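Case study B.
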Amino acid sequence: MNTEVLRTGSKPLPRQRSAVVYKLSRLATSFSMHALVVASLAILLLPIVWMVSTSFKPLADVFSYPPQFIPRNPTVEAYTTQFTGLLGRYFLNSVIVGLLSAVLATGAGALAAYGLSRYRLPGRNAILMFFMASLAFPIPLLMISMYLMFVQLGLLNSYIGLVIGHTVITLPVCVWLLKNFFDQLPVEVEEAAFVDGASRAYTLFRIVLPMARPALGASAIFVFVTSWNELLFGLTFVSSTSMRPLPAGISMSFLTEFEGAWSEMMALSVMVSLPIFLLFTVFQRTFMSGVTAGAVKG
Amino acid sequence: MGFSPRQAPVFLAAIFAPSILLVGLFIVYPVVNSVGLAFTDASPLSSGRSFVGFENFVYLLEDGEFWEVLWNTVFIVGAATIIATAGGYGLATLLISGIRGAAIFRAAIFQVWVVPWIVIAILWGWLFSQDYGLVNYLLMQVGLIEAPVKWMFDQNASQWAIISGYAWRAIPFIMVICLAALQGIPSELVESAAIDGASFLQRQRYVILPLMQNIILVAALLQAVRFFQEMTMIFVLTQGGPVNATMVLSLYTYKTAFEDWDFGLASAIGTIWLILLMAFALFYVRVALRRNLA
Amino acid sequence: MLNRKMATLAAAVALAATGAAAQDKTELNYSGWINLYPHHAAAVSAIETGFEEKFPDVDWILNDVPFDQALKQATVASLAGNAPDNIHLIAGWIPALNDIGALEPLNDYFTAEEWAQIPQSSLDSVTFDGQIMAMPWVPGPIIMFYNRNLMEQAGLDPDAPPQTWPELLEAAKAICALPDVDGAPIYGIALRTARNPNSAQWTIPIIYGQGGDIVDAEGNVTFDTPEAAAAYEWVKELTDSECAPSGFTIDETRNTMAAGRAGFIFEGPWGRGLFNNLSGGKLTTAADGDIWAAPMPMDPSGKRRTIGNPHEITISAGSEHKDLAAEFIRHVIFDPEITTAYFEASSQLSTGSMPLLTSGAMGDDAYTQVFVQALPDTNDNPIKSPKFYAVMDELVVALQSIIQGGDIQDELADAQRKAERTMSR
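Model:
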């Protein structure tokens, strides 16, 4: 079932009219079904619509009653006030930390996942279970000892400290996701390479990993997005403005400054979401197939 | 299947080294060390630290506040997970029923899944603003409420404001998983049930749900684990208030550690949390294993 | 190919990460919340350019920290050994940072003449074993601001603000009886009651106003007193009748006051700049304007007493440029050009120096003098303990519970119990 799921999961809904679809389609043609979908979509997307709408309003219209969904006096003022060096710096920090974490977690994760997938290691299941369980470890509990360690190592207020933090909270997912992918790659390819005299390292780096590109991509996107989202490490392990990643920077510099200035807050929100939206729109297929495979296999 | 580890010990050591280093240094050691700290009065504000036995645990278990926080966590995480799961499954069922434009709907809903938490926090502050918020406006228009709700000050209301944010963010995730799994259900099964005259609800109850229940449970548990860790929204919006209504374990541990600087007590909270979550994880393993066997 | 792309990417990232570090100038780091309100921008740039003119080899670096996070950030940075050279604090936090050895004693960095300019009471609150750990910056008496227009509309004399706490209660109720404006209610008094230790700190003057205190003769914390109960009863009466908002953050109370939707608010010297700017110039704070300031009401025995929340500027113990950091303090506290620029941009009192507060632009300013007169009745450190804010964090839970209908005695007793444990750790 799993390969089937993986394949269809990555595509738009199947066109062929299977019996399920056929029977249900009678209902689907009914007005109520469509109405239900549209209604739930409206509710789900309302917050996003409201965010975008508010961001294009002058402050005076933000508080107008009844609320305007389509700005009557659209303006980009809220966006232009944001383009300060500080916000740019937060973006840069988040991109740097996100990319480094993505490379580190995906790299380390891929190597371990390959080993777990291909070698009959004693306690392989226990290792995998440990990885899964470690997802649930209380992050503040980790942070307490990490904080004490980072003080000793001088890693506070550095990109490295943040990258380590973001790597360890994502590594377990990377390992699972990539192991599931490797499980589905036919082992014959490697066996053939070994017969041809290729070394194990050569086979891994030149043959297996290039084939795993979609999964590596999904893993890297996952890490990057998690890092982009992460507030606590940024808040606690960083103490100078110039080193803060976006969420910590926003909560430290902009929340007070823009309190009540909702059009500016919403413009800020749109700008913070946009890179992630774009990333997902471009890589949606890659990501969905990778993640559904990992999760569906559970 | 698989190669024997004996064939390539050096290679294996090399490919496992980075993750062993990362996991050992930054997951295993910190957890073990922090569990140790739970039995001390450690604080970065004082140089010495002394062993206090179970004092921290006794204090927590005797203190009403801890139980309150525990209950809030279970309530907020539980309610959000249930709503997200029901919503996500419902949407998946709708989208797979062959309606027009399903792919577009699906793509639109995906966007919700990637909204950064800091954005949700800010956005929810605006949506749930007492005087000018859209939520109060709409609820009053529909006639569900007569006066604006103080979302951030009423204890019940603030919990629901947070729950709605969590659930909103998670619905697409559950939907994606359910869609993938629904597509894998053999069509003959459902078809024959329909030919036998089973209604939509009966087919759900007797054919689809039994096949789906494990995958739904797994997806819900995964999501619940993530909710346990998440605290951006609460940190930005309520700081755990009003009173302690939205104080959840993650924020409580964090604040005890990094605002009160009571590492000993915070470690004790984290340790109890760890024990509870290990029980939770055990449940997860059971469910996952049972599914794999079946 | 992927590998090569990755390598290029990694190189680019590494470059970006280190690129910013190349600097010849000495960097002097300040952290604090001076820049968080847009109307302070002119002052910040005056401070920066003025300082860099005096010391051309120095690059002054501003690290924004919002008020809510300032204590935590200062603690984190100090423990991490990378504290900024100058840390902006309030008096109530000095004991906590002093306790972890984060601060440099300032006694020897300034001359006797300079120290003589600072009121002794202000110095006392930041002196530990004879060592002065902070330089008083913006004086901080918390007093009563009131909206003169609303007073008048409610049939009260705008030139005769309430003198006692019961009078204030009556006035607040009269104002909140005014009809809604544009669908939004008018509050009698904008009390801050969000879950923030600062909300609890702001109730201390109300406890003083009942003739009580939060420490006993031995200096132990006492929340469980009849006076505290009376003070919280006073608050509860206002929130129950919706004459005070429930759960408002600091900024929400300020926005409400600046929107002309509250009769009273308790604020420090920063109030005028905030209200004038947040109202978009619609309201002016002046003796004959829309908003004016008056001393806190008297307690039953006719005494006035309030808390101070004075801003302090400190040098971190770990600073590598302590003399330069002291020069920065000298620059913002004693240079009349800078104190005047800060005063004019922010409309708030801008130095702890009495001669500067009572001469020049500030000397001529009636508003400044209201605060100068309140200074002797001001207690800058209601609990002179490193645990001050931690204890306030316990008290705010009681405050919120009481507003939501919790039993006053029980909640205060609970806060007392928690405070005792916190103090003993």
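Chain B has one domain: 63-293. The remaining cases will be described in the next quarterly update.
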